[in-house]
Amino acid sequence: MPPLLLLFSFVNLVIGSAAFVNTGLLEPMAASVGVSVAAVGQTTTVYAVSVALLAPLLLASLGRLPQRGALALAMGLYTAGNVLTAVAQDLATLLGARVLMGLGSVATPLMAGIAVMMIPPERRARGLALVFLGVSLSYVVGLPLGAWAGLGWGWRVPTWAAAALTAVSGLALWLAVPRDTPSAAGPALAGFARLLRDRAALAVFSLTFTYFIAIFVVFAYIGPVLTDIVPMDRNTLSLAISAFGVAAVAGTLLGGRLTDRRGPRATLTFGLSGLVICLLLLPLTARHPAWMMGIMMAWGMTGFSMMAAQQTRLALIAGPQTALALSLNTSMIYLGTAAGGALGGLALTVLEPQYLPWVGAPFGLLALVWMRWSLPAAGGPGRGG
User: Fold this and answer.
1) CB within 10 Å: which end of the chain, N or C, has fewer?
2) DSSP at 54
């Protein structure tokens, strides 16, 4: 695999850590700015909406801007959002900062589009899995370390660290991406219209949207959910999130290999079935930390096995519009994240946090049924729908 993919993976580690470190720090953040946990949890919703609705428009406006320039702009916006988060004294500032970070997240599909141009088709799923491995690693490294540092020394400490690492990552991309790398965005406006008329692409997008609702009904409130299931201190909470992340790394790599060997249908069946089972079982592990940790790891492996399959499907459907297709798929990820976060916040008004997984499970089951109907039984990485 080209060495540049390792840098892309590291940048995604930084982006993923900065995006979701707040999920383990909702309570101290809420106390700091004087709002409820449910209210500060909506920073995840605002970030998700920004990624979903504004990032593709930014990608379209970049047109054929050289990759180094596009990536520098994206990482600059992401850095600015982290800095604004670190100095925020009220909820409105936090929400504005998350909008900037959402715009900056366009760096991820830009890097993936470059990667697709560099990787031979027979190894594409594994290559994309490597690029997105950084997102999985954020659950092993960034989130638990951020939660540990934030709960020990204040939630602003990991936010300042994220700002510094984002700035360094932007500089590294500027130095490493060749000047003559062609734009991955392509004719964006025309591409929007074509992709939104393509039944195969729409099948992929709708599947992504549905299973991310299932995930983020729970994960947007993962700190309160886990501590309600098994009362724990900050060290144990960090360990639980880290265990989830270790399994997510394994699942990301497994999903890439399984997709290249068996095709997306088998990979997605494995991932969605496991997700549903884990969400159904997690509330039943109350007061049993070992069982809770085991279910969290199974959830991480199955949940993260699906990304390479979805991205491979889109790369074959979209061709030269791959970066735009991946950006729109990211939009579905974050629309699902936003919907899940909002639904989870609503559910918390009538349910204890430990029961949120049962709110998410039906959406996982719906995604499984939709995938089995929309993706041809041949299971190859071809067109679904």
Assistant:
1) N
2) I
**CA 130/CA 44 separation, integer angstroms:** 25
Largest CA distance in the chain: 57
Residue 364 lies in a domain: yes
User: What tens digit of pLDDT does each residue of 299-341 get?
Assistant: 989 988 898 888 888 878 876 677 778 878 888 887 887 788 8
Burial class from Cβ neighbours inside 10 Å (0-12, 13-18, 19+) for residue 385 reads middle
pLDDT in tens, 40-69: 777 777 887 888 788 877 877 776 677 778
Q: DSSP label at 105?
A: T
User: Which one, of 249, 19, 9, lies nearest residue 137 by Cα?
Assistant: 249
Whether 275 has a pLDDT exceeding 90, the answer reads: yes
307 assigned to some structural domain: yes
The enclosing domain of 69 has a CATH number of 1.20.1250.20
Q: Is residue 272 in a domain?
A: yes
Cβ atoms within 10 A of the Cβ of 202, count? 18
Phi (first) and psi of residue 126, to 5 degrees:
-65, -35
Nearest alpha carbon to residue 241 among 217, 213, 221, 266: 221
Specify the number of domains making up the chain.
Answer: 1
Dist CA 207 CA 231 (whole Å): 34
CB 140 within 8 A of CB 56: no
**Dist CA 129 CA 135 (whole Å):** 10
Tokens of 74: 């994206």
* 153: exposed, middle or buried (Cβ count in 10 Å: 0-12, 13-18, 19+): exposed
CA–CA dist 244, 153 (Å, integer)? 23
| Cβ neighbours for 68, distance < 8 A, ≥ 6 positions apart | 173, 174, 177, 179, 181
Count how many Cα atoms sit within 13 Å of the Cα of residue 245 in the half-sphere of its side chain.
Answer: 25
3-state secondary structure (DSSP) of residue 208: helix
Query: Which two three-digit tokens encode residue 235?
Result: 């060290």
**Is residue 384, in this structure, part of any structural domain at all?**
no
Expressed as residue numbers, the domain containing 186 is 4-374
pTM of structure: 0.73
